[in-house]
Amino acid sequence: MAASIILPQGEISNVGLAVFDKDGTLIDIHTYWANMVKLRAEHVGAALGLASAHVTGIMEAMGVDARAMRIKPEGPVGLKKREIVLQAGVDYLAQNGITDTHQLFVDVFAEVDTKSLDLLDTFIRPLPGLRQLFDALRGNGVAIALATTDKTERAWLCMRHLGLGDHVNYIAGADIVAEAKPAPDCIHLCCNELGIPASRSVMVGDARSDVQAGLAAGCAASIGVGSGLTATATLAGLTPYVIEDISHMHVR
């Protein structure tokens, strides 16, 4: 089946698959990642007996403005693979004379993955229009997939927590592809698994890397949304399809 995606800039017809970024597109990126990074930094700090200034330093290195509890536009958290975020914390401590912490960070990241399961109501905040859009896509026979820099398992956890697990047909996290966005690997995997060509798919995301991945994959449209880290003016330099948030995306 197929449907048309209606945007302020026009209509994209014969769409069989909508691929979404997760953080900043479907859920509030600042609430999710600022809290995750804070919890990670606090656990590392407790394990090493660090002063609070170093806990804050780890957060800043990973890409969180600790005072505002907001993600920095340059990341790396929210934009780069998990391993890059982890290494940023390791490098910060090494620059401050605290070495050989890589395995500690690996263990803490895994521990926080588990501990955060009890905090999902605090960490996950859906953005406006999410359920309505997913209901409309599903009702019109359009498959839904996620292409995310998060772990695949964590993305599924998020969708299930929001009550949308049965709406999503496939998720490709950065942990199951050779190259994360802006490479097209995640999108190609979604298309291949669902049997829908990129030419009948749209990519929707809040970051430059999302739009670039959609373009590289050969999607029918690469749609930028201004609800995350990237200004709509910046996204408009990459694609003609830019919306404030997914509530401005409709299905017919």
Automatic annotation (TrEMBL):
It comes from Desulfovibrio subterraneus. InterPro entries: HAD-like_hydrolase_sf, HAD-like_sf, HAD-SF_hydro_IA, HAD_sf, PGP-like_dom2. GO terms for molecular function: phosphoglycolate phosphatase activity. This is Haloacid dehalogenase. Pfam families: Hydrolase (PF00702). One of its GO terms (biological process) is DNA repair. It comes from the Bacteria. SUPFAM superfamilies: HAD-like. One of its GO terms (cellular component) is cytosol.
